[in-house]
Amino acid sequence: MKIIFAGTPEFAATALQSLHDAGFDIPLVLTQPDRPAGRGMQLQASPVKQYALAHGMPVAQPVSLRRDGKYPEIAREAHDLLQATEHDVMVVAAYGLILPRSVLGIPKHGCINIHASLLPRWRGAAPIHRAIEAGDAETGVTIMQMEEGLDTGPMLLIDRLPIAADETTGTLHDKLAHMGGSLIVEALKKLERGELGATPQPEAGANYAAKITKEEALLDFSQPAASLARKIRAFNPFPGASASFGGASVKLWRAEVLSATNGATSGQVLEAGPQSGVVVACGDGALRLTELQKPGGKRLPAAEFLKGFKMEGGRFD
């Protein structure tokens, strides 16, 4: 079976590696154009492009696939390339570009998506973040037949995974990436044998997993401690939860939920020591901050952080 693969970040690169390791023929890889990254803002190839080039796979990086969009000539060239490339199916994983109907209809078996959620629970750009933020007990990967709607297509295969109490988006991402790689290999082998069935998605229970913004990662300590703890885990490693202390933006990477605050005002630092960590009153309960980062500094355990950043008796704005 010949596969065109479309994806961009590390999640997608893991799936591409799984397909390559399984022996599938991959005559073309689509990925986003190189972007500026790092302190020097040098152009950097996506993880998918890096893997593809390292293994001799042809790569194309159209800025758009919409022939009626801003870059119609580029989109037309991309369509011509897809039609000229012999393939049976397109596998899509976190590609980042909209696939119009004209592209969805090119492959013999259509376009199949690897989605990091138990559809229809979280449709959209940030299903891993939103599952942790919402306090979901489990998540997983859905292999889905793509259609024009946003993650609305029929489900082909599903695998489930419990969300651990200390799970961060970073740790859960890695687990789901490997799960997605294994599941897409299984799906394509079933497709080759004619054994891959489709189940329509129910509309009940569908939620939109909006893209994460840096603004929403600024914590408000008037909220319940349990909610804030989930946000800290959901925004780890990107964009990193933060709060303002004495005019400085402090990143908060790990925290534990405590109960009573004895009527303290939300945001007040109740304790700040090497044993207790940084305990902050919240709208309901308190948070023990155990890993923090000051501007320009490194992520540090609370005991190390407090050696260079005084918090005792202060408060978060």
The fourth-level CATH homologous superfamily of the largest domain is Formyl transferase, N-terminal domain
Give the H and E element order.
Answer: EHEEEHEHEHEEHEEHEHEEEEEEH
Calculate Rg over CA atoms.
Answer: 22 Å
The helix/strand class is alpha/beta
Global shape: elongated
Low-confidence spans: none
Task: Give the count of structural domains.
Answer: 2
Q: What percentage of amino acids are in beta strands?
A: 25-35%
In the CATH scheme, the class of the largest domain would be: Alpha Beta
Mean pLDDT: 96
Number of strands: 17
Largest β-sheet summary: 7 strands, mixed
User: What count of helical segments does DSSP give?
Assistant: 8
Quaternary organisation:
single chain
Residue share in helix: 25-40%
CATH overall fold name of the largest domain:
Rossmann fold
Major beta sheet, strand line-up: 5-2-1-6-7-9-10
Q: Please give the alpha-carbon distance between the first and last residues.
A: 58 Å
Using the 3D structure, state the CATH architecture of the largest domain: 3-Layer(aba) Sandwich
